Amino acid sequence: MHYQLRLSVAATLAAAAMLASCGKKEEAPAAPATGASVSAAPAAAGSGDVQVVKIASVAPMSGSQAHYGKDNANGVLMAVDDMNQKGMTLGGKKVRFEAVVEDDAADPKQGTAVAQKLCDSKVAGVVGHLNSGTTIPASKIYNDCGIPMVTGAATNPALTKPGYKTTFRIIANDDALGAALANDAKKNNLKRVAVIDDRTAYGQGIAEVFAKVAKANGIEIVSSQFTTDKATDFMAILTATKAEKPDGIFYGGMDAQAGPMLRQMEQLGLTTQKFFGGDGICTMELAKLSGGAKPLENVVCAVGGSSLSKMPGGEEWKKRYDAAYPGQYQVYSPYTYDAAMLIMDAMQRADSADPAVYLPKLAESSYKGVSATITFEPSGEMKDPAATLFHYVKGNKEAIE
């Protein structure tokens, strides 16, 4: 069941105060439920002169990947709040932005259903989706109805291959991430690497890039196996992998599977092998999901952007994020924040929230964001995106400088 629920900041705070008065532990602000339309600033008196402009955030808000989705939505909510605080007029009318948060459950069918719903409700722009498997089919729907879509998370190179003028990506794709990891394997003199993927568009895609570049680097791929993005038991796969005596394992997938995989590797004595993965495993949550297993120390993962310390506004932005959403930061929220700000900036330059009017301005952006200065290739790919490798030191994710 989908419904619209408008919440003001005052109402949210009042609800939190009521819970606290009932003796319940106060929780960090949560991303709104599916379909919620959140006004980050209350409408001014005489709101008939205020134009409401809706920007959607789409990601998995339920299931094993919900922590990613909440992080993504938080970035959009922060951007909307910041712009409302700053104030904008379009066509001579004041604007109040609202974030519409939708759940695609990391499922392609639900993702396309959400995309059609957003087209029907005529949102002005979309930030999302998170998974390549949902983003790729949804991108056609947004293109057909003319709504710009900016992803700061989906990395499969196939996303921009159709040439849709409404599709933009502000993060490095898997061609860059897989290659960076394969080059790191060569740098560390690995000779034999096993590859496992979860058969999703993202997981299989980045695994194929890694394997291709690794082979070109003279590394032998000793086995290629696959699981699913719902699995939790990897003992059979890992037992077969151990028999091949690899000095490294690459996993194409998400942290919900990588965490248990690391625990089971420890049980099987696979404690010295490097463990490579893309941005899907490169989260704060991985340390928790792995239960502190020793193989966590061997993880090398890649993210399509700079580390927070090297982002133009990363550290100051992160302080504000943590104050608003303590303990919820994962990976992509700086990019979803920038994606939403990028869309609103294009509207301002076009003096219109009409997608047909501001889309050309979006394509020609040169926006100085928190994560980077964002400009686009004709394909919708970001020009010169950065990529950063990370590892885990005493359970903390740190950039490999």
Automatic annotation (TrEMBL):
One annotated GO biological process: amino acid transport
Signal peptide bounds: 1-22
Keyword Membrane attributed: no
Domain Leucine-binding protein, first and last residues per copy: 53-380
Database matches in Pfam families: Peripla_BP_6 (PF13458)
Entry similarity comment: Belongs to the leucine-binding protein family.
PANTHER family in the cross-refs: AMINO ACID BINDING PROTEIN (PTHR47151:SF2), LEU/ILE/VAL-BINDING ABC TRANSPORTER SUBUNIT (PTHR47151)
Name of the featured protein: Amino acid/amide ABC transporter substrate-binding protein, HAAT family
Species the sequence originates in: Brachymonas denitrificans DSM 15123
